[in-house]
Amino acid sequence: xxxxxxxxxxxxxxxxxxxxxxxxxxxxxxxxxxxxxxxxxxxxxxxxxxxxxxxxxxxxxxxxxxxxxxxxxxxxxxxxxxxxxxxxxxxxxxxxxxxxxxxxxxxxxxxxxxxxxxxxxxxxxxxxxxxxxxxxxxxxxxxxxxxxxxxxxxxxxxxxxxxxxxxxxxxxxxxxxxxxxxxxxxxxxxxxxxxxxxxxxxxxxxxxxxxxxxxxxxxxxxxxxxxxxxxxxxxxxxxxxxxxxxxxxxxxxxxxxxxxxxxxxxxxxxxxxxxxxxxxxxxxxxxxxxxxxxxxxxxxxxxxxxxxxxxxxxxxxxxxxxxxxxxxxxxxxxxxxxxxxxxxxxxxxxxxxxxxxxxxxxxxxxxxxxxxxxxxxxxxxxxxxxxxxxxxxxxxxxxxxxxxxx
Length: 406
Prior knowledge:
With 406 residues, the chain is of the alpha+beta class. Helix content is 67%, strand content 8%.
């Protein structure tokens, strides 16, 4: 019995009974385990689209850039427009520099548009056959070449591809980069652009000088005509009123009136002294009274004459006469000041016309490249791969979205 006890302890314990329903669920879970992944039709289509939309364009662009695309050399030039500084005298006279030179910022905008215009393309093409140069590799390199039968409009379109312009509005600096088949041609095209820009600036200077002189001369002629008319009006007024200067005439009359008032005061003093020393029936007292009366009447008459209607031959009173004369004098003084200002403006315009107001300052002369930096093959292939991958990803997402909803 003692030996049987350990054997009973080491014997395996009986398994617990599992319900039948639990056993079936376990069998079902085991049956639902994922099987081995298989390549389906949609997977093959996704890989094929990746090849067609990404790998094929990248491969074609790389093959074209490294086998067919010709090297391009770049020449760089930088310039800006400077305006001659004007002194304070011209600013006091009304900003004559604005009439002559204009603002350098506005001229830089004009130059920026000028370099991209058909005029520059035609001017450069007259010295350098652009069509022959850029069509030398046609049709072997159609992307970076132009066809031999290109018109001026086609050449202008291609010009904007080959000439890159950078313009900083805050500083007015303009940088150009010209690409060509060889370094010498690129440098020569950049030189022609700088030369044409200088010629355009000189033309602006000439036009500004001519306009400023013409405007100054016109202003002087108009000021002279107004001054002549104002002086003729003053002369006609003097001939009509027969008074050279109404102000001086009134001052003379005021002097007479002041003299009479002084005489009246002296006569009153003499009368008071005489009245105190002699009898009232004395003839000298009556003489003094008559003198005082006459002086008073004369003062009243002189004062009445200031408002009389017939002080001149045309029946004008002194207030109206003074008003007319002051108006004419103001007009004459204004026209004289205007005439002097027009003379000063003409002299300033003539002085400014003798020197250049705006000029092209080239701070980077056209450079001569030693190696071809264009086309940028790695960058172009990378951009092609990036955009192709973006397009393929969007199309794949759209496909799976429609598939899940369908």
